[in-house]
Design goal:
single chain, mainly alpha, 6 helices, 2% strand
Length: 189
């Protein structure tokens, strides 16, 4: 937990600033982990869709790293001290490490779909919590969501069948999602 800021931006109380800092600290950790997870997938993806997925992920990594930087800078602007160390991320995160190593492209995309779902859901909660606190922070979160949701759509385009069903619909874990996506891909002609 970060120290209470001694100041924040004009027009915002330090108490409100602290609430926003707490939200942003968790978003910073999630975005840092997401960009590392995307690179992990980039390095470990194999199979017939390798190049499509490999090249699809680099722009996502770059954009998520930009979101991370924007979040850290917003924390500093509000009088906080952004902490981007691996130890802080691991100590404060509420999710487990990405569960898939070297695997087929579709299996990774199945797991990544669940990762994006978690990040997007938590970003939306943070966005909603800023309604009465800070619209500037909310605007930043909305912009992040616009890209995160687009990236998830790119991922889901690989997981959707012609009927519009996702192969990962009933999955609760990354490992389940990877297996379901892989199984559906093997069944398609």
């Amino acid at each position: 937990m970060a120290d209470t800021p001694r100041y924040t931006v004009p027009g915002l109380s330090t108490q409100s600033g602290q609430q926003i800092l707490d939200l942003l600290r968790r978003r910073l950790h999630a975005l840092n982990e997401l960009h590392l997870t995307l690179k992990h997938i980039h390095w470990n993806v194999v199979g017939p869709h390798f190049i499509a997925v490999h090249e699809m992920l680099d722009p996502q990594v770059d954009k998520v790293r930009d979101m991370t930087d924007q979040t850290a800078e917003r924390i500093a602007t509000l009088g906080g001290s952004p902490c981007g160390t691996p130890g802080a991320l691991v100590a404060e995160r509420t999710w487990s490490d990405y569960a898939v190593g070297r695997a087929d492209s579709i299996a990774h995309l199945g797991a990544l779909d669940l990762v994006y779902t978690g990040v997007i859901e938590d970003h939306r909660k943070a966005m909603a919590a800023t309604d009465d606190l800070d619209l500037v922070t909310q605007d930043m979160l909305i912009e992040h969501l616009r890209s995160l949701e687009l990236f998830q759509w790119f991922v889901r385009a690989h997981l959707e069948n012609a009927s519009g069903n996702l192969s990962t619909t009933s999955a609760n874990t990354e490992t389940q999602a990877a297996a379901q996506a892989d199984q559906q891909a093997r069944q398609q002609p």
